[in-house]
Amino acid sequence: MKYLNEFHKLKIFNKKKVVDLTGDKNAAKEILRRYKKRGFISQVKRDLYVANDLAIATSIASKFEIAGNITPSSYLSYHAALEYYGFAHQVFYDIYVSSREKFSDFNYDGIDYVYCKSSSEVGVLNPPTDSLVRITDLERTMLDCIDRPEFCGGIEELVQCFSSITYVRENRLMEYLVIFDKQILYQKTGFVLGFFRKEMRLSDSFFAFCKSKIGKGTGYLSNKTESDTYFKEWKLCAPENILSYLEQGGLAYV
């Protein structure tokens, strides 16, 4: 029981942390074996452990905290970030985790942790009240979901999530759009956020900025089968009426 309080303070740890505590690799290996056998800790994946609540024998670390510690650079992204911020419409049993370091997808405690390649760490932060969580800020999250709606649960879930957002920092959106420098993302962003411009308090100048970056090519909001209607203003093919998803509702869980 000597190291139990230390493990509870850490919540999530690897073998190196235990070696630092014990000062001996063999002792660390034996402690991990014994504590795991007695249910004091659980192994999430190779070289990643969590302390357990002794009353119910489940992890004291949240799925969001686990996601932020899978690799040195891992962070919550896409739908998982929207869920953390409270904007998810449906509860998913997979967590999208972006990381510079590749890891194999795995399941722990009924949750699938799914690897996404990190294209940039711009907008990644530690929330003030959750030091173990790393996550994209709201504006980066929105752009990521617009860019890859399949990682947001599809267009319907994206629209449902965005309908709950009442304010965004348009200067931050513009800053990230410039950094990502993708014509199709300007098209998609202008098109999608145009449906929520009043609720999100987006100015005309924001949409003028997006339009100024559009070239001659036609893009698709999602796959070609679903995006079957052409919108001349944005030179974009998208579902005919994406706001109809707000009327359709959906399953509570997927």
Descriptive overview:
With 254 residues, the chain is of the alpha+beta class. It has two domains: 4-61; 64-248, no CATH class. It contains eleven helices and 13 strands. The chain has helices at residues 4-10, 15-22, 25-37, 63-67, 78-85, 138-147, 155-162, 170-180, 183-194, 204-212, 245-248; strands at residues 12-13, 41-45, 48-53, 58-59, 75-76, 94-99, 106-108, 111-117, 124-125, 135-136, 219-220, 229-231, 236-238. Strands 1, 2, 3 and 4 form a four-stranded antiparallel sheet that branches. It has a four-stranded mixed sheet with strand order 5-6-8-7. Helix 5 (78-85) packs antiparallel against helix 6 (138-147). Residues 249-254 have low confidence and may be disordered.
How many domains is the backbone divided into? 2
Backbone structural class: alpha+beta
Low-confidence stretches: 249-254
Helix content class: 25-40%
**Outline:** elongated
Radius of gyration: 21 Å
Total beta strand runs: 13
* Beta-strand percent range: 15-25%
Average pLDDT, to the nearest integer?
Answer: 91
Give a quick account of the main beta sheet: strands, pairing sense, barrel closure: 4 strands, antiparallel
N-to-C order of helices and strands: HEHHEEEHEHEEEEEHHHHHEEEH
Number of helices: 11
Give the termini distance in whole angstroms: 40 Å
Question: What layout of secondary structure does this protein have?
Answer:
Layout: H1 4-10, E1 12-13, H2 15-22, H3 25-37, E2 41-45, E3 48-53, E4 58-59, H4 63-67, E5 75-76, H5 78-85, E6 94-99, E7 106-108, E8 111-117, E9 124-125, E10 135-136, H6 138-147, H7 155-162, H8 170-180, H9 183-194, H10 204-212, E11 219-220, E12 229-231, E13 236-238, H11 245-248
Parallel strand pairs: 6-8, 11-13
Antiparallel strand pairs: 1-3, 2-3, 3-4, 5-6, 7-8, 9-10, 12-13
Helix pairs in contact: 2-3, 5-6, 9-10
